[in-house]
Amino acid sequence: MTTLIWSDEIGKRIRTGDWDDQAISTVTKIREVLEEAGDDFGPKAGRREMAAELVDYFMEEAKVIYLIYGVWTEGFLDWLREQGVTQDEVDAELDRLAHLLAYPDGTPLDAPARWGDLGAQAGRLGNRIRSYDITVADGSAEVEELLAAWRRLHDRNADLMAGVLAWVARRFGEAALEPCYRSVLEPFIQERYMVFDVRQRPYAETVARNLYIGLEAMRAHMVGPGRRGNTDLQEFDDRWEMSFDPCGSGGRMMRGDEIEGTVSRVLEPYEFGVTEEAYDWTWGEKGVCYYCVHCSFTMSILPAERWGHPVRTVDPPIWDGPDGPGTRRACKWTVWKSLEAIPEREYERIGRTKPQLPVIQPGTPGAIGGR
Fold first, then answer.
1. Domain locations in the chain?
2. Is the pLDDT of residue 82 over 60?
3. What is the per-residue pLDDT across 162-185, written as a single tens digit (0 to 9) for each?
């Protein structure tokens, strides 16, 4: 029975349930709880309140992604300004992208306005569920409408960020993506990933948190078939593997938007770009989309530079044409159950060597790991 509880460890509300349950989208959970409650004042009528709270929680999940996209995109623009790009040029490019990423009805992207509309839509739905002003059937239909509204906004925000990164590469060369990303991601690393610093806490103490926030994030990215937020999660003796087919952000960009019927973002009219050369920050691969590179920096490169080890390891899709198997393969994140389990290959892919274990004790300052 799905509920929400407060987690002191993570500092926010979280969903209850085992790991297989966490791999199921919150949209599915809202509908399940609504059906449990029913339309009458029966013994499970109180589950209506939980369904309403799960609508609120759906917005919590979405909020994290919405804020990240806004902060990062503005950060990339700030970096461009620091390189001498004028505000007039910035305004012109943003206007071009807003029209390129227009909604199906032709309305240019206006993310703050759309986010405000989404919040109002979710608030009304939650209140109607609580007050029995909506049937289970109609409530389930409106949950689907909420998901669709978030998908349209999410995908355009992701594309906007990708479009700005493509502009960076066109203007300064794709190698400039490294200093650009590094300048922007530092606050995010401090807020979201330094908790995994093994100089401060043993690795084993943060593995569950690592897996939870990964699954939560990908629910909000609406991964998986039909873009509903369902992750294919498999557990092995030494690791968990999360597969996204497709990933709701970079994977969708590479393949094209099958729901809205638009082409790969690598192709015209988008041309958001994939790397032409291999770098440590592209896992040693060519053909990584500029957007997907952020996973390398946040999960592998920057953590390994600070305390020697990746937080998660990533096997992304690799561009080999619009219908190529590399383009269409599922993205996979791996959470390793111990530092010992992380294979040497995962360090070599980011230009490093696996540190000797044990490397440090909690509280020991300083960066570790060979290069």
1. 4-348
2. yes
3. 999 999 999 999 999 999 999 999
Distance, C-alpha 232 to centroid of its chain: 15
Q: What is the signed CA dihedral for 12, 244, 307, 203, rounded to 10 degrees? A: 60
Q: What is the mean pLDDT of residues 229-235?
A: 98
Q: pTM of whole model > 0.90?
A: yes
Burial of 38 (0-12, 13-18, 19+ CB in 10 A): middle
**Secondary structure of residue 370 in the 3-state scheme:** strand
Question: Long-range contacts: 64-68, Cβ < 8 Å, 24+?
Answer: 64/216, 64/217, 64/220, 65/154, 65/157, 65/217, 65/220, 65/221, 66/111, 66/115, 66/153, 66/154, 66/157, 68/188
pLDDT band at 366 (very low <50, low <70, confident <90, very high): very low
Residues 22, 25, 31, 35, CA torsion sign: negative
Q: State how far the alpha carbon of 176 is from the alpha carbons of 27, 80, 189, in Å.
A: 39, 10, 20
Q: Which two tokens stand for residue 38?
A: 């029913």
Helix, strand, or coil (residue 105): coil
What pLDDT is recorded for position 45?
A: 81
Task: Dig out the tokens for 147 from the structure.
Answer: 């998901």
- The CA distance from 368 to 360, in Å, is 8
At 322, is the secondary structure helix, strand, or coil?
A: coil
CA distances from 145 to 46, 150, 365 (A): 24, 9, 49
CB atoms within 10 A of CB 295: 21
For residue 363, pLDDT beyond 60: no
> Residue type at 288?
V
Please provide the distance, in angstroms rounded to a whole number, between the alpha carbons at the two ends of the chain. Answer: 48
Minimum mean pLDDT range among 40-54, 131-145, 255-269, 303-317: 40-54
CA angle (65 as vertex; 228, 252 as ends), nearest 5? 50
- What is the length of the chain? 371
Q: Give the CA radius of gyration of the chain.
A: 21
More confident residue, 360 or 123: 123
Are the C-beta atoms of residues 304 and 205 closer than 8 Å to each other?
Answer: no
pLDDT at 368: 28
Distance CA 165, CA 87 (A): 17
CA pair distance 253, 160, nearest whole angstrom? 11
